[in-house]
């Protein structure tokens, strides 16, 4: 056998098809394309929403109409035509199901292909799953166990009906309708998403999880997630996403709002492997996401993300550290290959005294991809003793890709302590030879080295996700690492 | 009238005033430059590159564009701004006009003279055509503005294999002949193969009147040339400076630009390095020690285009009172620039509430076999070290100054001219408000 | 076991090995000594299959199989182990994870099942104890921040785990104090058997006090200029290398 070189690997990567690129043949209830006030009202009506919600959406739509798509990110793509998208698509089978047996068998097959068989999830990992397929929740499990603790975990469409007071109070409180172009669009047309409320002092006994999946061609997916952790509570939330392979670019513009009240802690983990586009750069998902969390006194929000998918990613999970002694964390691995472009990072806004933030960002670029870290650490003039530590490392594979670091650091108080470090490196020939000599082939060696490079972030993921995440890194870089 | 309109409408008058060769290529460059400036206007905070520096208040002044010197300036007026302890060539300009009386130029081994004569004398036509305004960037509207009004400045032309025997000091004085003055000096430095030169530059306002200096320097370092350029910025609080320095380097050359910012109301340093060969070394060193409401923005770019080059960037900042520091350092490593070593470090200390620092250290890497890193820190003085020193009898102010000097020392250490080093050390002590000799 | 015949090798078109002949049988310990630049490390790298070196003539044969077309990992699967003079750092990859991957990849290549985690753990503990390695050490990143002694001990630990047929120790004594040297040598001696062989490459005789060779070869200018018993090492120590030139 001849030696497996990095070039061979690159070739193999190019020929590698998207593993999750299949399309489930479920009948879908789909709106005609285009967006105007009527469509917004129709979406709201379809979901039987109260008037205040319809008004809220219309307000967002008005703001959106006046806004321009942002251009500052280090990504280049053909802008989606917002009038060519269908803004609502729900499986025809009506979703309220009590048991998994009632779920469309086609759908179950889809989940199996994804390796997230619900049965298995239930049995093995004790995960409560709120599954969103093309924008509507299909099955919610573990509701009972959660009910006993007073935890509310349901599709946001239901929460609007059943807990309007909570939704009214917090929806848009941290990502206002006018926040940015995509957040405004999402606010106007969001189809569904998850709602989660953890009562005072309650530690959520299991990891809460949602799988998002884009299914129908030409539909945009606009989920809306709202997680509220009341005083002294704790929750760990997992979000995983895949999309089948389609030729057109699919738009995904989600909004996630986290509210951690005094002494509460939210851990939000994402594994994202939406279709990255073909090796020629055709197709793939546009992932323009707004994620932000608010920390009250002594609260903590921790974002962990493993981003291996999407053709274009634009995503900055952020923390507003409003309360004294609050803590924000951001742990990220972004892997780009072929023609993928990722512009991702975080904002840590230090408003309260003694607030702390940690940013660990690892970027791996291969093929002809471009991978950018963009971050902001801000310390206001009246904020005492803010601390930040940031580490941004890039690993380049091949000389056709790019790695970029754009950190913004703004300090206006003398007690601020901020440290930012960034490095760029490649996989060394000597490292590969050392592994080879111990019987590890080059492909495996690269996987091993990339995993080692990403370890600080992988370690932050809940167990259930860590294995899947590791697998994803391997798939997106070579397809056979363990 | 808005300053922009005033500048644009004064352009014809400026060119026709005489002393300028209207048939030359330079005339064409000026014309193009004023058009570019007219199209772009002054940068505003909306420009990403000017996010943290606001020119607007400064531009509200009714600047006199062509001041005339009314106040005679003698050696005694300027002595303290010269480094007298060393022999040097000196180029001294007063209100934009060259003072041959105060200067010490040469045409012997090399040309250390004025740009106005280089722009008009046939002897220098080749040099001007080959170098003048070839690396100043068209998208830098302030540099374009300078080009449009280029008339005077330093012209330094070193032939190959020449070690310039003594440093060159360039000083620009403003006498405040008008209430508000705009000066636009222009330097051109061409250093031939194997040649060495050391240059010290300073802008100084001798009055209390408002001065805005929009300076441009172009430096060309040929094969194996060594260039050291020191910028001393310790101007009065009535003075603002936008300094755009562009450096183009050929293979194996070493170019170092050192920026010492201790004074001035508003200072913006644009410093850009472009590589035109392999095995080049670029050094960027800077220290800012600010107080009051001073504002210094160091905006750097190193563009690695060829393999096997290095860049080392080190900027330190100490900010007191309500002063503001900006560091924006960009390192680009293009695809061909394999085996690049690029290091960037920016360390800041905030002394008082109200002082601020905005930093944006950026890496843009398109080559894989490179070693690039950047680090940025914001912190304060080590209180325990301070206490320790106080308990040994060192007064707080002095202890603080010692610690701050230690913080900035690795920048000072890079100065190769001993007399300049002790001058800078003295200036640091002055700016920290102590009388200490740090060089023990 | 290992048979090297008229081996010539270049790096960047410069000839370093100029006709090496060497026979190593199972159960033997050979030492190769020589001054700096004689080609010692090149020889070990060529046996291990490092790509930068081009074999221009001759062959390396392991158990009757010519290794010419074998990739480094295939050579490792066939039982060649090289203890590196400068072990390489791999940040974030623990000693345990690394050795686990190495063992399972080797097993996979031989058509064997992966070693169950329980057995792997047992094996790791056993071998760590043999080499007096602290358990905490096993969860550190491979060679990152290791002292010289730790790096070399880790190499021998991996050797113990992989149980190679032929172990090449390239300047394993460099950077070791006498205590660490004894631990490493002791480990090698315990691992030695009638079925495997050891090739010690060293500049100094010191290590050979502890790992006693059956044969000593002197390498000079890319050739073996003298071979003998263990007494040759002592002679070299006393006289230096000059008398051989």
Structure write-up:
The complex is a heterotrimer of chains A (482), B (440) and C (245). Chain A is an alpha/beta fold and 482 residues long. Chain A has 13 helices and 23 strands. In chain A, strands 5, 6, 8, 10, 11, 13, 15, 16, 18, 20 and 22 form an 11-stranded mixed β-sheet that branches. A 10-stranded mixed β-sheet of chain A has the order 4-3-7-9-12-14-17-19-21-23. The longest helix of chain A is centred in the first third of the chain and has 16 residues, at 51-66. The radius of gyration of chain A is 22 Å and the shape is globular. The two termini of chain A are 22 Å apart. Chain B has a 10-stranded mixed β-sheet with strand order 2-1-5-8-10-12-14-16-18-20, with helices on one face. In chain B, helix 1 (3-16) runs antiparallel to helix 2, helix 2 (25-40) runs antiparallel to helix 7 (141-148) and helix 8 (383-391) crosses helix 9. Chain B has 3 domains: 1-276, no CATH class; 298-380, no CATH class; 388-440, no CATH class. The radius of gyration of chain C is 18 Å and the shape is globular. Chain C has helices at residues 40-48, 72-77, 95-109, 117-130, 148-162, 178-191, 231-239; strands at residues 2-11, 14-24, 29-33, 53-62, 65-66, 80-83, 90-94, 141-142, 166-170, 197-202, 215-220, 223-228. In chain C, the strands form 3 sheets. A 6-stranded mixed β-sheet of chain C has the order 6-9-10-3-11-12, sandwiched between helices. In chain C, strands 2-1-4-5 form a 4-stranded antiparallel β-sheet. Chain C has a two-stranded antiparallel sheet with strand order 7-8. Chain C has a single domain (2-244), classed as Rossmann fold (3-Layer(aba) Sandwich), CATH 3.40.50. Helix content of chain C is 33%, strand content 29%. The mean pLDDT of chain C is 89. Chain C contains 7 helices and 12 strands. Chains A and B meet through strand 22 and strand 23 of A and strand 19 and strand 20 of B.
Task: Give the tags.
heterotrimer; A: 482 residues; ten-stranded mixed sheet; 34% strand; disordered N terminus; C: alpha/beta; Rossmann fold; four-stranded antiparallel sheet; 7 helices; 33% helix; globular
């Amino acid at each position: 056998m001849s030696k497996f070189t990095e070039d061979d690997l690159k070739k193999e990567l190019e020929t590698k098809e998207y593993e999750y690129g299949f399309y489930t043949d479920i009948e879908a209830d789909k709106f005609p394309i285009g967006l105007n006030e009527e469509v917004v009202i129709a979406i709201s009506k379809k979901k039987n929403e109260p008037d205040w919600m319809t008004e809220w959406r219309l307000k967002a739509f008005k703001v959106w109409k006046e806004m321009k798509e942002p251009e500052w990110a280090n990504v280049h793509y053909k802008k989606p035509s917002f009038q060519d998208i269908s803004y609502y698509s729900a499986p025809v089978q009506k979703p309220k199901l009590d048991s998994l047996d009632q779920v469309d068998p086609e759908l179950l097959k889809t989940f199996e292909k994804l390796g997230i068989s619900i049965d298995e999830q239930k049995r093995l990992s004790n995960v409560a799953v709120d599954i969103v397929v093309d924008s509507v929740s299909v099955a919610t499990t573990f509701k009972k166990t959660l009910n006993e603790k007073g935890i509310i975990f349901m599709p946001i469409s239901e929460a609007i009906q059943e807990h309007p007071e909570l939704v009214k109070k917090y929806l848009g409180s941290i990502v206002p309708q006018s926040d940015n172009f995509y957040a405004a669009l999402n606010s106007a047309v969001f189809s569904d998403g998850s709602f989660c409320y953890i009562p005072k002092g309650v530690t959520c006994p299991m990891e809460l999880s949602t799988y998002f999946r884009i299914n129908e061609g030409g539909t945009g997916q606009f989920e809306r997630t709202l997680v509220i952790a009341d005083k002294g509570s704790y929750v760990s939330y997992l979000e995983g996403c895949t999309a089948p392979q389609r030729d057109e670019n699919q738009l995904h513009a989600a909004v996630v709002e986290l509210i951690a009240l005094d002494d509460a802690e939210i851990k939000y983990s994402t594994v994202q492997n939406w279709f990255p586009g073909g090796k020629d750069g055709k197709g793939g998902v546009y992932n323009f996401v707004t994620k932000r969390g608010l920390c009250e006194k002594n609260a903590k929000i921790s974002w962990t993300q493993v981003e291996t998918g999407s053709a274009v990613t634009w995503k900055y999970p952020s923390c507003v550290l409003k309360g004294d002694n609050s803590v924000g964390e951001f742990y990220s691995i972004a892997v780009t290959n072929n023609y993928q472009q990722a512009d991702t990072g975080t904002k840590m806004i230090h408003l309260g005294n003694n607030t702390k933030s940690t940013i660990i960002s690892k970027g791996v670029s291969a093929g002809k991809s471009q991978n950018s870290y963009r971050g902001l650490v801000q310390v206001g003039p009246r904020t005492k003793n803010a601390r930040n530590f940031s580490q941004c490392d890039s690993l380049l594979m091949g000389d056709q890709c790019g790695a970029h670091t754009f950190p913004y650091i703004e300090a206006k108080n003398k007690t601020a302590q901020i440290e930012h470090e960034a490095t760029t490196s490649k996989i060394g020939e000597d490292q590969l030879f050392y592994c080879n000599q111990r019987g590890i082939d080059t492909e495996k060696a690269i996987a091993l080295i990339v995993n080692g490079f990403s370890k600080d972030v992988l370690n932050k993921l809940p167990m259930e996700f860590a294995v899947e995440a590791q697998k994803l890194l391997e798939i997106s870089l070579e397809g056979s690492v363990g | 009238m808005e300053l922009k309109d005033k500048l644009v409408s004064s352009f014809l008058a400026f060119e026709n005033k005489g002393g300028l060769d209207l048939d030359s290529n330079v005339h064409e460059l000026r014309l193009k430059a004023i058009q570019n400036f007219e199209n772009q206007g002054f940068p505003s905070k909306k420009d990403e590159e000017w996010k943290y520096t606001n020119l607007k208040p400064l531009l509200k002044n009714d600047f006199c564009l062509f001041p005339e010197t009314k106040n005679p300036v003698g050696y005694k007026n300027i002595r303290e701004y010269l480094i007298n302890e060393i022999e040097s060539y000196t180029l001294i300009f007063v209100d934009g006009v060259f003072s041959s009386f105060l200067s010490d130029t040469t045409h012997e081994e090399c040309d250390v003279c004025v740009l106005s004569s280089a722009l008009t004398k046939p002897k220098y036509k080749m040099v001007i055509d080959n170098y003048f305004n070839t690396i100043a960037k068209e998208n830098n509207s302030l540099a374009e503005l300078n080009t449009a009004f280029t008339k005077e400045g330093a012209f330094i032309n070193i032939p190959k294999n020449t070690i310039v025997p003594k440093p060159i000091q360039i000083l620009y004085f403003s006498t405040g002949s008008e209430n508000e003055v705009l000066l636009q000096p222009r330097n051109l430095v061409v250093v031939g193969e194997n040649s060495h030169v050391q240059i010290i530059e300073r802008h100084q306002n001798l009055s209390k009147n408002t001065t805005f200096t929009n300076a441009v320097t172009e430096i060309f370092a040929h094969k194996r040339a060594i260039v050291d350029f020191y910028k001393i910025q310790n101007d009065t609080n009535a003075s603002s400076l936008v300094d755009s320095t562009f450096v183009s380097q050929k293979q194996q050359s070493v170019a170092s630009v050192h920026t010492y910012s201790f004074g001035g109301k508003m200072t913006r340093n644009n410093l850009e390095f472009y590589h035109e060969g392999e095995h080049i070394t670029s050094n960027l060193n800077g220290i800012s020690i600010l107080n009051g409401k001073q504002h210094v923005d160091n905006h750097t770019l190193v563009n690695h285009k060829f393999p096997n080059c290095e860049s080392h960037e080190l900027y330190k900042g100490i900010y007191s009172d309500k002063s503001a520091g900006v560091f924006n350092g960009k390192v680009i490593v293009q695809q061909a620039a394999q085996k690049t070593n690029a290091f960037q470090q920016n360390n800041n200390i905030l002394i008082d509430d109200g002082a601020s620092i905005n930093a944006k250290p950026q890496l843009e890497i398109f080559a894989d076999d490179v070693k690039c890193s950047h680090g940025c820190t914001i912190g304060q003085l080590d209180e325990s070290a301070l206490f320790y020193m106080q308990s040994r009898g060192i007064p707080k102010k002095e202890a603080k100054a010692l610690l701050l000097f230690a913080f900035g020392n690795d920048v000072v250490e890079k100065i190769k001219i001993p007399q300049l080093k002790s001058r800078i050390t003295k200036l640091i002590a002055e700016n920290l408000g102590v009388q200490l000799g740090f060089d023990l | 076991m290992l048979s090297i015949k008229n081996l010539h090798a270049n790096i960047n078109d410069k000839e370093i090995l100029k006709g090496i002949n060497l026979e190593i049988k199972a159960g033997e310990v050979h030492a190769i000594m020589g001054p700096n630049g004689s080609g010692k490390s090149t020889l070990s790298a060529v046996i291990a299959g490092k790509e930068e070196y081009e074999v221009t003539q001759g062959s390396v044969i392991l158990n009757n199989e010519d290794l010419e077309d074998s990739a480094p990992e295939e050579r490792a699967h066939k039982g060649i182990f090289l203890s590196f003079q400068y072990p390489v750092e791999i940040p974030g990859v623990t000693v345990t994870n690394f050795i686990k991957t190495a063992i399972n990849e080797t097993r996979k290549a031989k058509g064997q099942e992966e070693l169950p985690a329980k057995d792997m753990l047992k094996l790791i503990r056993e071998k760590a104890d043999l080499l007096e390695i602290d358990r905490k050490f096993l969860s550190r990143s491979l060679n990152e921040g290791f002292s010289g002694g730790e790096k070399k001990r880790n190499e021998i630990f991996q050797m113990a785990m992989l149980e190679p047929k032929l172990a090449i120790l390239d300047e394993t004594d460099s950077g070791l104090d006498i205590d660490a040297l004894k631990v490493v040598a002791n480990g090698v001696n315990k691992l030695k058997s009638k079925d495997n062989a050891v090739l010690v490459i060293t500049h100094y005789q010191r290590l050979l006090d502890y790992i006693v060779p059956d044969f000593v070869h002197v390498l000079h200018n890319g050739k073996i200029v003298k071979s003998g018993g263990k007494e040759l090492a002592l002679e070299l120590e006393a006289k230096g290398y000059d008398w051989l030139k």
